[in-house]
Design goal:
Mean pLDDT: 94
Number of strands: 9
Helix content: 25-40%
Order of helices and strands: EEHEHEHEHHHEEHHEHEHH
Number of helices: 11
Radius of gyration: 18 Å
Distance between the termini: 40 Å
């Protein structure tokens, strides 16, 4: 892959790479980046088929990890700390398993190195069923999406991917809005995204798993897989949070990450 991932770099210091989740973009981790950039050089990335990064038909964790490693090469980063949420956590795990010498420390937010059952069918169908030719505002798209996705907060998150087509690129009576996501590739490759990271050997560096107390993404039955692939892993639970733990309790999330990254926390 010759294209580099879209990115935003802020701050100065040792490199810290942030990786967002499925249907997200680097902006979703903006609140975290703003708190980290006082001590770290923060690299917030859009993963392939997301945000403003390139589109590709292939989408699996080895390929996505390869994108991150190529980004590191082009930025001259021999080694970095990685922090990934959900799908981004799996990408971060894959980078560590694929190229352990490139990862200083690893933080995985609310995801396990396991295969999950499909649970985004309604979201994918809803987004693909939105009639973009009839959409003239986000409110129009929201009304259509509501037939498939009940939670208003989830719809607002998904609609962050709806962008207005530049006037010069619009055709007469054609769509005014488009999805910046590569929905077809995400749908076609969904089984790859639900799958566990690929590993020939464990990553022996320090790893912090952060779990939302009210989330089921990290379960007791997953601990064996976590220990097998990441023998120097610890799990911290953030009470009163679900899958979006970094947004629900940002200060607590950042404090735990900072303690881990600077070696101040004790198990």
């Amino acid at each position: 892959m010759s294209e580099i991932l879209n990115h935003r770099i802020t701050g100065e210091g040792a490199p810290l790479i942030l990786l967002h989740g499925l249907f997200g973009a680097q902006e979703n981790l903006g609140a975290i980046a703003r708190q980290f950039h006082t001590q770290w050089q923060v690299h917030a990335l859009d993963l392939r088929n997301h945000g403003s990064s390139f589109h590709a038909d292939t989408m699996d964790y080895p390929s996505m990890a390869g994108d991150v490693l190529e980004y590191m090469d082009k930025q001259g980063l021999d080694k970095a700390c990685l922090l990934g949420h959900s799908m981004g956590g799996k990408v971060a795990m894959q980078v560590a398993l694929q190229a352990p010498e490139r990862v200083e420390k690893l933080i995985v937010a609310d995801i396990s190195p396991v295969t999950y059952k499909a649970h985004h069918d309604a979201i994918l169908e809803g987004m693909m069923q939105v009639d973009l030719a009839s959409v003239r505002s986000r409110r129009d798209a929201d009304k259509q999406l509501a037939e498939f996705v009940e939670a208003p907060g989830v719809r607002q998150f998904l609609l962050m991917n709806l962008e207005r087509i530049p006037n010069e690129a619009q055709s007469k009576d054609g769509p005014v809005y488009r999805w910046r996501l590569n929905l077809k590739a995400i749908d076609d490759c969904y089984a790859n995204l639900a799958a566990a990271p690929v590993a020939d050997a464990p990553y022996k560096g320090p790893v912090l798993f952060l779990k939302g107390a009210d989330s089921a993404y990290i379960q007791e039955k997953h601990k064996e897989d976590i220990s097998r692939l990441f023998p120097d892993a610890q799990i911290q639970v953030i009470e009163g949070t679900g899958h979006w733990l970094h947004a629900e309790k940002t200060d607590t999330f950042v404090a735990l990450c900072q303690q881990f990254l600077t070696g101040q926390n004790a198990e």
